[in-house]
Every structure is written in structure tokens, then in C-alpha cells.
Amino acid sequence: MPFTLTPTYDDNPRLRDLVGRLRDYLDGELAEYEARLGLTHESRYGRDVLEPVWKRSRELGFYGVHLPPEHGGQGLTFTELAALKEEIGASGRVLQLSVLGDMGGPLRVGSVLRYATPDQLDRYLLPVIRGERACCFSLTETGAGSDVRAMTTTATPDGDGWRITGHKVFSTAGPFADFSILIARVAGTVGKDGKEAYAAFLVDLDSPGCTVRDAQTPMSGQHIESDIILDDCYVGPGQLLGEVGEGLRIGLGRVTANRLLHCPTVLGMARRALGLTIEYARTREVFGGPLATLQSIQHKIADMATGYYAARSMTYDGLAELDAGGRPRAEAFMCKLFVAETAFRIADEAVQIHGKAGLVRGSEVEFLFRGLRMFRVLTGSSEIQKNAIAYQLFLGDQG
After folding, report:
1. Contact assessment for residue 61 and residue 25, using Cβ atoms and an 8 Å cutoff
2. Which among 52, 191, 326, 371 is placed 20 to 30 Å from 297, CA to CA?
3. Mind listing the domains of the chain with CATH numbers?
4. Acyl-CoA dehydrogenase/oxidase N-terminal domain: from which residue to which, for each copy (predicted)?
């Protein structure tokens, strides 16, 4: 995999075409749309701003592009999808997560389609794929992050249905969603493993007893998450996704694949930070010449580029293994750890090289710094990844 900040994918004509058209849309039409609305990464915006992006992205073939042809996609490999997600991360666009469907769209529902009944497909999931509805995913609670079994949200059987009470946090796309794929423990029910059973429910967010509340604003400053509060909220039998006892499997989804697929977007953000820094060093005049002529700056940028190349190579190697039918569990944990730590170091150096210009609120590298700092915690902290890597190594030794 040759090093470049603008990959060409000449060995894959389909991907080369997709990436080219995606870049054109991100840098052209979408950039103009955001500029016309005066959007920044910390803007508050509503469904009316997002729906045109969902619809236009679907018209262009990006929204749900990873899905099989029967659902309007192109059946992309994991590696191909990752390349598109990297371009999204590298674009710097405010609404980037709405283009492929990360923000409550097809990338949220794709992994649960196989659990859905025909009625659930028609009522909930296919409208999401078409850009007509949006969903959020509600698993995390204040006291249940990495330890998901510590959740207290409980579904109590009531006739053929259930009444759910609990408080979910960090539901991404919650402010714009019509329904939540929500995981709860089921009172008085034991699963096949002898432990308390969990279930996944399709909860309409306008149901009696369900309240969507603004979440705490993360350090990125984005307003894209909600708390979902349930107080004796009734869900009928037709809203059970899968079976009782499958909740954690559905909630954690394609764990290895998802862990690897978080990395390309972050790599794209790191690539953006590196590109901005190179351009700044070329144009910033210090002591009678460009900043880039200073050896100390050259060395910093060389380290940034080397780290990016190493992290990207690791990630795409893991994705290639996944595409080949393998199960790169340890590698996925390693990629999440290395990408998170390396991307943040790149962002930190980007701020350092930009000097005061990189410290100003609203500076793009300052935003990237905050966003990449979050990834060291989100979707499993670096410490959790290390625990899992060690576990895989010891498990392998025993096997």
C-alpha cells in the first residue's frame, strides 16, 4: 500500500470511481450547501438540514452504498467501505456523517436487517435506507459503558409486550431520530447461558413514556447526541427485534468489523490534520523563510506521516483479513488502540506546529484535536483495548 495523502485506487476501478465522485460531492455540492447555511462543527441544526443530504447522497449512490443490491447498495467489501469512510473523515465537512449513513442511516441499521421481521423491515428499517426515517442506537448508560451488563434499563413483561424503564446516554443521532434500537435487560428472564437475558427493541421516540433530551455536550462541541429516558414506556410484541436473549449480540453487532470500521474515519481526520499542517508549514513565514525549512518542523511532520502510514497499513491489513473470511479479533483491538493513539499524536503535533493559530477556537486543527482526543475513549478506551489484546494473546497460548 503506497503512501499518499490522496489514494487513487487504480487497482480497483469501482472504488476509484466511487472515491472520485465522493470527493467531488464533498468538496463541491456539500461544501456549498454547508457554506450557504453557515454551518460549523458546533452549529445546532435540525432534521430539515439533514434530510436533503440523505436524499441527495442516496441519489448519488452513497447513502447505503455498502448494502447488498437488493437494498439499493453495491455490496461493498469491508476494505472498499473503509476507503470511503476515510475520505469522509478527511473531507472536513460538517455533515460528513450523513453522507454514507453513519448519522442514523443505513450504516446504523445494516447489521440488524437479518433480525427483522417483514413488518419491521417495511415499517422501520427500509425507510431508513431510503432516507425517509432515521434511527439512533441506545446501549450505553451512565454506569454501563464498557461493562454493558451493568445496564439498569429494564423491560418488564406486560401481556404480549413489555414496559421499559431506564435512562440511555450518548445516543448518536438521537436529536434527529424517529426510533431507537434500544437494548434492555428483561426482568425475570434467563438466557441460554444461565445469565439474565437482554433484548433489543424498536422504540418509537414519540411513544408515551419516552423522552428525548439533549445530551451533555462533548468536548468536540457537536450537538448530535441525546439521552433517551423511558418511564414505563410500552412496546408491543412487534417491536421486539430478534429474540429475547439476543439483545447483547444485536447491540454489539459485528463487533470485530465495527471496531475496524471505526478506524478509517479517524485515519481520515488524521490525514486532514497532516495535510493542513504541511500546507501551513509551506506558507507560514518565520525568520525570513517558510516554516517548512526548519529541520525541527520537518522531523515532526515526518513522524506524523510515518505514524499515519503505519496506522493505515495496520487497519487495511485487518480489513483484508476480514474480507477473506477471517476473524481478526486481536488485530481489531490492536488497530483501534494504535489508530486512536497515533491519530491523537498527529493532531497534537498539528496544533503545536500551528502555534497560536492552532489554539484558537474555530480553527480546524483545534477541532480535529478535540475530536481525535475523544476517540481514545469512545467505542472502548485504549485501556480496554489493551485488556482485550492481552486476553486474546493468553487465550491463544492456551489453545
Report:
1. no
2. 371
3. 13-102 (1.10.540), 134-252 (2.40.110.10), 255-398 (1.20.140.10)
4. 16-132
